[in-house]
């Protein structure tokens, strides 16, 4: 084990701004938590993009090691639950916000944050899925629990060419749903067709204020956008349908009315990945394990070096990344 290693840390740049810096660290710099892990792979999610570029204030204390996702190997464990050599994954649980994160060769973590690496995925594949893909799993599981009928009207996926959207599209198509993809990037239509989307809606069609109730088009939806997009999706959802909402790529507002809910029994299912309890996490990973086609997964991501992290974060924020990225730590 080397004495020093590199971490990508968010530091105070003054004037309420932050800066991301490659920093040399030692094991003594890590928090005093029971499990020491060696991180092999991570990824860049939307929240990581916000944290690293400084476009969003994610870290609640500074300095903070960024990175909300890791695939890792246990090096030392003060609990019986995990032993040296165990392969594990960690998604969320406040990493990069209140807890030191994954963009570091070594990290100390709590055992209750760890899941064994799901059988059937390599560490690289688990990070190709990462929080974005696991959140797609939570959203699709929420729609399945709601009882959405595969024979019913098509399911809409917003931000389809992004991380959550790509995995949601592939999962829903594999489960037998007809998937309509919303994207602002027509050049991704071929990619989305390969994932299983059979129809497309231009992102701009949903981005303006619409009527409270619109013609019924969707049996349900996975929404990563929020804002007018979500309000319009709800207004276009068929009687008795459900929308799993997890994101705010358009914005945090919800400029709609109660009409779809009280006149069409449309359900708005909120989905959080960060503090989701372990049974929900296991169900989502189980769904991904059973239903995510590995060949398709391999078309959804590219692998990058650790030093590319700042650039990848900028590109994600500029909507220049298709699907997912894996980072070799
Ligand atoms: P990505 O950046 O990979 O994808 C976001 C996609 O949203 C883009 O690719 C784009 O898709 C679309 N988009 C961008 N801007 C707009 C806009 N103004 N209006 C509508 N759509 C837009 O991010 P992720 O997939 O990683 O995350 C998506 C969202 O989900 C984020 O808001 C993120 O914070 C949230 N999230 C929430 C989680 C939770 O626990 N609740 C967990 C994970 C993510 P296209 O180019 O196809 O139009």
TrEMBL record:
Molecular functions per Gene Ontology: acryloyl-CoA reductase (NADPH) activity
Record keyword Oxidoreductase present: yes
Keywords: Oxidoreductase
EC number, as in UniProt: 1.3.1.84
SUPFAM superfamilies: GroES-like (SSF50129), NAD(P)-binding Rossmann-fold domains (SSF51735)
TM regions (residue ranges): none
Start and end residues of each Enoyl reductase (ER) domain: 14-327
Matches recorded under NCBIfam families: oxido_YhdH
PANTHER family for this protein: ACRYLYL-COA REDUCTASE ACUI-RELATED, SHORT-CHAIN DEHYDROGENASE/REDUCTASE
The protein's name in its UniProt record: Acrylyl-CoA reductase AcuI
């Amino acid at each position: 084990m080397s004495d020093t290693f590199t971490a990508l840390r968010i530091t105070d740049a003054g004037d309420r701004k932050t800066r991301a810096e490659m920093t040399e660290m030692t094991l003594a710099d890590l928090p005093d938590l029971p499990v020491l892990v060696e991180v092999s792979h991570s990824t860049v999610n939307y929240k990581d993009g916000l944290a690293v570029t400084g476009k969003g204030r994610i870290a609640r204390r500074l300095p903070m090691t960024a990175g909300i996702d890791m695939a890792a190997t246990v090096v030392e464990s003060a609990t019986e639950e995990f032993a040296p050599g165990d392969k594990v994954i960690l998604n969320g649980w406040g990493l990069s916000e209140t807890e030191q994160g994954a963009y570091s060769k070594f990290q100390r973590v709590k055992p209750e944050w760890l899941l064994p690496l799901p059988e059937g995925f390599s560490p690289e594949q688990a990070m190709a899925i990462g929080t974005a893909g696991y959140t797609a799993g939570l959203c699709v599981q929420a729609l399945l629990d709601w009882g959405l009928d595969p024979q019913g009207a098509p399911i809409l996926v917003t931000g389809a060419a992004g991380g959550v959207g790509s995995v949601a599209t592939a999962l829903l198509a594999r489960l037998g749903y007809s998937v309509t993809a919303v994207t602002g990037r027509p050049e991704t239509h071929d990619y989305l067709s390969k994932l299983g989307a059979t129809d497309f809606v231009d992102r701009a069609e949903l981005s303006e204020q619409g009527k409270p109730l619109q013609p019924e088009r969707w049996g349900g939806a996975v929404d990563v956008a929020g804002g007018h997009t979500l309000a319009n999706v709800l207004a276009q959802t068929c009687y008795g349908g459900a929308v799993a909402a997890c994101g705010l790529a358009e914005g945090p507002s919800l400029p709609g009315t109660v009409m779809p809910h009280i006149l069409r029994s449309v359900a708005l299912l909120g989905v959080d990945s960060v503090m989701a309890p372990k049974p929900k996490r296991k169900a989502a990973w189980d769904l991904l394990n059973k239903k995510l086609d590995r060949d398709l997964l391999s078309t959804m991501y590219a692998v990058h070096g650790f030093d590319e992290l700042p650039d990848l974060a900028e590109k994600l924020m500029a909507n220049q990344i298709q699907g997912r990225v894996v980072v070799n730590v």
